[in-house]
Fold:
Amino acid sequence: MSSGKGNPLDWLRNDPFFANQISLKALEEQWKLDPDAIDSYVDKVIREATPSLSPTSKTKLKFEHVDTHSFLITKIRIPSSIHPENLWLQLYRTQLKIGGLANDRSEVITLPVPVNPNQSRATFKQGTLQLKMPKLSAGRYKDIPVRFL
Structure:
């Protein structure tokens, strides 16, 4: 390898095997990518892939879902301006409604999987409201006997 500041792909030009196998123009164009452009692209993709954490999301509350084998755990950051004892929750199989927010408003969070509202629990600790909701089972196979006539 050369220690000069030349093009890092120069060694490919001198190698007889790679000279005919690889389009060096395409590699040189990729090599010239700006690291800042790559960083901004990655940030944009991450923001679009996580709408619940995005500032352009429909809800004002920041939340995240943790999906385990048996439970869906939702953690919601409650702003310090909201008194936690004024909050109320309503849970449906696929939606969580939080009331008692600023200006007497409520927000609905869509859940990624159906849950069992009757066995769900909520706790509040250090500014975070956490709900532990058991998932509804997708059902099990049932044996059906076959009658031979």
Residues 59-134 form a domain with the Immunoglobulin-like fold (CATH 2.60.40.790). Residues 12 and 21 are 10 Å apart (CA to CA). The chain has two domains: 8-49, 59-134.
